[in-house]
């Protein structure tokens, strides 16, 4: 009985450690602590996702980390490669980051496309949009997006971070 209780206690401690680790690494301070992320931080701070008329603000994790616990942990594990790229000098300068920006952006866009832009849909919903108050082209595209097989990221690349030029691809 003691072994079962000890195992349960160890399991709870392990789960809490994972939860704490995910929460601690979901802050903007953590996400932008690498030199290469200073470019992304500046772009974010100039975007409507940082400062806007209604005062709603997202953080890095809102858009880059899935909400389900297993997916979030998986994303954190794969994010280690970004840390390694910083440590090994692959993207540790603005010039190197810019040279890889197209590739990095396409990786993020592919993940968002695969998730049907769930990161966006946490805050944005076509069903709740007042299409009559949008520009006519935007209203038409939003109205037919689902039928056309489109998701947010298909049209809204470069909303928070500058859309890279294809010529920067490596």
TrEMBL record:
Which prosthetic group or cofactor does it need? heme
Q: Where heme 4 is bound, by residue?
A: 152, 155-156
Question: Which terms under GO biological process does the entry name?
Answer: anaerobic respiration; denitrification pathway
Task: Classify the main location.
Answer: membrane
Domain (NapC/NirT cytochrome c N-terminal): residue spans on this chain: 6-165
Topology relative to the membrane: Single-pass membrane protein
Report residues binding heme 2.
Answer: 60, 63-64, 161
UniProt family annotation = Belongs to the NapC/NirT/NrfH family.
Q: Name one GO cellular component term.
A: plasma membrane
Q: Where in the cell is it found?
A: Cell membrane
* Record-given protein name: Cytochrome c-type protein
Modification comment: Binds 4 heme groups per subunit.
Domain of life per record = Bacteria
User: What does the note accompanying the cofactor annotation read?
Assistant: Binds 4 heme groups per subunit.
Q: Which residues bind heme 1?
A: 31, 34, 37, 82
Q: Sorted alphabetically, which keywords does the UniProt record give?
A: Cell membrane, Electron transport, Heme, Iron, Membrane, Metal-binding, Transmembrane, Transmembrane helix, Transport
- Where, by residue number, does heme 3 bind? 120, 123-124
């Amino acid at each position: 009985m003691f072994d079962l209780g000890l195992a349960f206690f160890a399991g709870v401690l392990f789960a809490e450690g994972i939860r704490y680790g995910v929460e601690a690494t979901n802050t903007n301070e953590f996400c932008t602590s690498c030199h290469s992320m200073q470019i992304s931080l500046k772009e974010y701070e100039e975007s409507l996702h940082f400062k806007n008329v209604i005062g709603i603000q997202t953080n890095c994790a809102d858009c880059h980390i899935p909400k389900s616990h297993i997916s979030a942990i998986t994303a954190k594990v794969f994010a280690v490669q970004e840390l390694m790229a910083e440590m090994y000098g692959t993207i540790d300068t603005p010039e190197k980051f810019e040279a890889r920006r197209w590739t990095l952006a396409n990786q993020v866009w592919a993940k968002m496309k695969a998730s049907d832009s769930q990161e966006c849909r946490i805050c944005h919903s076509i069903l709740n949009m007042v299409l009559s108050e949008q520009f006519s082209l935007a209203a038409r595209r939003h109205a037919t997006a689902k039928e056309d097989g489109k998701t947010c990221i298909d049209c809204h690349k470069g909303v928070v971070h500058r859309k890279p030029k294809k010529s920067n691809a490596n």
